[in-house]
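Extended Data, panel c. Modelled sequence:
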Amino acid sequence: MKHYTRKFIPDYIMTMTPMDEVAGYLVRPGMFDVNGAISLPNGVNFTVHTHFGTSCELLLFHEGEEEPYAVLPFPEAYKIGDVYSMIVFGLDIEKFEYAYRVDGPYEPEYGMLFNKKSLLVDPYARVVTRQGTWGEKKSSGYRGRVVKDVFDWGDMPQSEKELSDLVIYELHVRGFTMHPSSKVTHRGTFAGLKEKIPYLKELGINAVELMPVFAFDETLNAREVNGTKLLDYWGYNSIGFFAPNMNYASAVEYNCEGTELKELIRELHDHGIEVILDVVFNHTAEGNEQGPTFCFKGFDNKVYYMLTPDGNYYNFSGCGNTLNCNHPIVHQLILECLRYWTVSYRVDGFRFDLASILGRNEDGSPMNNPPLLKSLAYDPILSKVKLIAEAWDAGGMYQVGRFPASRRWAEWNGRYRDALRGYLKGDCQEAWSAAWSIAGSGDLYGGFHSDYDGSYAGYNSCVNFLTCHDGFTLYDLYAYNQKHNEGNGWDNTDGVDDNRSWNCGEEGETDNPEVLTLRYRMIRNACAVLMCSRGTPMFLAGDEFGNTQFGNNNGYCQDNEISWLNWEYLEKNQDLFAFFKFMIHFRHSHPVIRKKLPDAVCGMAPIHIHDVYGKETNLPRGTRTFSVGFAGYNREKGQDDMVYVSVNTHWEDVRIVLPKLDNGAFWYLSVNTYGDGAGHYVYPEGSGARIDHEFIMRPRSVAVFTGRFQ
């Protein structure tokens, strides 16, 4: 059976005829309830709105030309409420780009910045042009282009994996394959990432979190420092929320922009890998009072941004402006945007940068029940996608464990990162927080349960991580005591100072075998703990083979070998890669780590935290060694699933006692990050030694045991 897809166009639109003539073009009032520009069989429908603006013009350009070849003022009869809509007949979508000019009052002290000379890109544009070649300064003025949505997804069902079953792999599309060592044909592109899917399958992850892929201008704040050109490499300054970044496409895609990204998503889905987009709705690239005007400032500055009483910008984002997310107009834009990416790109989830801003009122104050967050949580189209909040912002709001609407929203667990980073390097005062974090942060998220309305809390609300794009890589976490951001040009003042890192004895690169041995053991410790923690693990691309950023913990501007993954480390550190693969597979094989199961028959509690004697659940203050256990009955296999994770941060051997198991069950060693001296750190099911009662934990190591019946 062949499947056909097409946009629904009402029959009356198909037979519409022109009513007027504007600037030599036949026109008629358009579809006022359809935002953006869409192609019709007999023309193009343009719809845009402004609340405080007094008039609007549509500008048509030939590609590459600075001046419009046509300017079409919207007649007053083509306005309903605040919405201008016009069908222009006889346009070939392959032969024009478009923008708007809006007139109105210019009163900065009241937040009004209308200027009829400002060229404005459509907030709903499905593609933003003038992106040009990566790294080259763009021509002035962004424009939109009309896109044909003819991609056939066939009968591909929507993924319904639970968040807790995912292992999330955060990556930068360009940086993932830009280094020559990636050996892909299309370096730094969606197609290049697609070439690496077999690698992702081998690693075992089942979700990728893509750093921003919305349209952004990497040259907007370009500068040179010591001969190195610095760009807006990360892409957290959006210029178009509905448009993909076409610099990530390996080929020109006129009027079908986004096809290569869709092909990537379909291929990832075919291999069982979900796609989560890192989205930035807290600010835009228009910046503060000194920033450019190319979109929202010109349509309705007072509507789209949070403004102080004197018309300046609140800066809760740390990037110059703050989007006014809970204004109904902005609320509608964000909802339509997420729906668009869910339907047209089949995205499986969204991670919201500085998400606490989404819960601020128009005056910047926190809201108890933010309407935007509630709308996203209960929207029927978004009901199956993951919603993940970075539950803080640059204005001091920190909401880890209490993000509004958290029974639908998940959170990046910032406490997990801080507690485990500190404890694993020897900060024993973090013991209690570290143990609770491994056990699922039940004090923050309340354990696993489902309410009458189908919402969830507990471990499906908890995304655990030790590394992400923002901060040290996992290798650098154990190679540097301090950040080394001198190359960013801010005298090493940018980036966080609270890294909770440890260089293991020497700062930076070293040939000292003792230091290197300890560093890689610390990386194995971090991986083992992360993969054996209740909640959803996430780690940064390249951590699995020891990629380094040379101590830079804020590589937002480094489009070079600082930020690009160097795949030569994969060849160098095959044993580390094999360890990551094993731990990911181990997690997939033991559902008791990921979720609560029926009670076990072995006598173990579902979750238990023990001291070195395997009995006490109250950890001694400042303990350097503890264990966390998980137990439950796996109906699928018809037997208990038991995992016991022991962490020793002491610099000496520590003898631990494992808890006794009932009904003929015994503990077996599955992981020992210290190793056996012969290069063995893991023991596949059935091959590890049986541990009858005691085990000697070697210095600064992690051991993982599984319970089995004789």
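Residues 1-7, 448-456 have pLDDT under 50 and may be disordered. This feature is highlighted in the accompanying rendering.
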